[in-house]
């Protein structure tokens, strides 16, 4: 538990201590920076000196419909087909090994006290209360220090959390997949569109796919990493924690390994689109016209790479 708290505290402390002000830009008094003004998004104020969009108190809620619209535009186009196909193939491949991989991980959980303790603490990384606390910490620092970047991070963390959570809950109630701990067949039974009351009475029998814990954690991590790009350690440390969370969820019987790729993808997409409203494509095209595919591709037109499921945790 100490290691988990220490890691989270390190992320929050380093991010919050980074100055919100970027290198100052001097404008010609006779020339109004029109391009900057034209890029302002609804629900945000702009500090011209800091180049930071300062969210209003309600933007974390009012921006959600546009997040869903951008999500639809990103996924429902021909450019995203290779990426979606790769994600599907990865999930299907993991489904073929779910029975054996789950029981191997579960056996270790039962036999090793240290692995059991590790798994129990790792799962807390996906707890919604933790991510709400992270948002509150950024908001508190932003208000006290008048730090626009911290306020923006807090608002976007809540926004990504809500958008991801709504999407995951909808998919869970459509797929109705059994979690490993109560599976009635190998790799779990799929009971599509269970009645809402049935779902609520016995959620473990329906809520496995996709993982909400890992999507929430990925959304929060992505928002923080996007707002603090100079903190290069955030991604490797964060991805390691995401990997630990995934193993913990399987060890405790909450999810199969095949539940994780879509959860990671959803968290990454919403975190990236919330922090970068200008995102337009799921994949990148090289100069020779071929499409460079990754399971979770890059959204960054400046060359940033996306989350890969082949990450070495």
Features:
313 residues, two-stranded antiparallel sheet, 4 strands, globular, disordered N terminus, disordered C terminus
Give the topology.
Layout: H1 2-17, H2 34-38, E1 44-47, E2 52-55, H3 59-62, H4 64-75, H5 81-111, H6 113-123, H7 128-145, H8 148-175, H9 196-201, H10 212-227, H11 234-251, H12 260-275, E3 284-285, E4 291-292
Antiparallel strand pairs: 1-2, 3-4
Helix pairs in contact: 5-6, 6-11, 7-8, 8-10, 8-12, 10-11, 10-12
Helices and strands: which structural class?
A: mainly alpha
What is the distance, rounded to the nearest whole angstrom, between the alpha carbons of the first and last residues? 19 Å
Describe the main β-sheet briefly. 2 strands, antiparallel
Number of domains: 1
Strand order of the largest sheet: 1-2
Range of strand content: under 5%
Question: Overall 3D geometry?
Answer: globular
Kindly provide the radius of gyration, computed on alpha-carbon positions and rounded to a whole number of angstroms: 20 Å
The total strand number stands at 4
User: Whole-number average pLDDT?
Assistant: 79
Order of helices and strands: HHEEHHHHHHHHHHEE
Number of helices: 12
Low-confidence stretches: 1-14, 16-51, 284-313
Portion of residues in helices?
A: 55-70%
What would you note in describing this structure?
The structure is a single chain. Strands 1-2 form a two-stranded antiparallel sheet. Strands 3-4 form a two-stranded antiparallel ribbon. Helix 8 runs antiparallel to helix 10. The relative contact order is 0.15. The protein is globular and about 55 Å long. The protein is mainly alpha-helical. The longest helix has about 30 residues, at about 80-110. It has one domain (about 1-290). About 60% of the residues lie in helices and about 5% in strands. Strand 1 and strand 2 form a beta hairpin. It has twelve helices and four strands, in the order ααββααααααααααββ. It has helices at about 1-15, 35-40, 60, 65-75, 80-110, 115-125, 130-145, 150-175, 195-200, 210-225, 235-250, 260-275, and strands at about 45, 50-55, 285, 290.
């Amino acid at each position: 538990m100490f290691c988990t708290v220490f890691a989270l505290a390190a992320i929050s402390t380093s991010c919050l201590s980074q100055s919100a002000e970027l290198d100052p830009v001097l404008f010609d008094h006779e020339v109004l920076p029109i391009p900057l003004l034209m890029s302002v998004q609804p629900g945000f104020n702009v500090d011209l000196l800091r180049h930071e969009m300062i969210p209003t108190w309600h933007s974390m809620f009012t921006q959600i419909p546009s997040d869903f619209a951008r999500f639809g535009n990103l996924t429902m186009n021909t450019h995203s087909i290779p990426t979606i196909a790769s994600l599907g193939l990865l999930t299907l491949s993991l489904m073929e090994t779910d029975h054996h991989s789950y029981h191997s991980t579960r056996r270790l959980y039962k036999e090793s006290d240290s692995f059991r303790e590790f798994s129990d603490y790792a799962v807390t990384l996906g707890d919604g209360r933790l991510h709400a606390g992270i948002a509150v910490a950024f908001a508190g620092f932003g208000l006290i220090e008048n730090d626009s970047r911290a306020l923006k991070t807090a608002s976007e963390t809540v926004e990504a959390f809500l958008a991801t959570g709504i999407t995951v809950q909808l998919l869970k109630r459509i797929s109705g997949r059994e979690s490993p701990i109560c599976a009635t067949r190998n790799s779990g039974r799929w009971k599509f569109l269970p009645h809402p009351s049935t779902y609520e009475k016995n959620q473990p029998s329906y809520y496995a796919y996709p993982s909400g814990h890992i999507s929430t954690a990925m959304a929060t991590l992505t928002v923080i990493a996007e707002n603090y790009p100079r903190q290069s350690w955030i991604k490797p440390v964060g991805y390691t924690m995401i990997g630990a969370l995934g193993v913990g969820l399987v060890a405790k019987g909450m999810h199969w390994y095949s539940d994780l790729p879509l959860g990671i993808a959803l968290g990454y997409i919403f975190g990236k689109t919330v922090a970068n409203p200008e995102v337009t494509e799921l994949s990148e095209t090289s100069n020779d016209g071929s499409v460079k595919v990754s399971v979770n591709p890059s959204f960054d037109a400046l060359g940033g790479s996306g989350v890969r499921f082949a990450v070495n945790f």
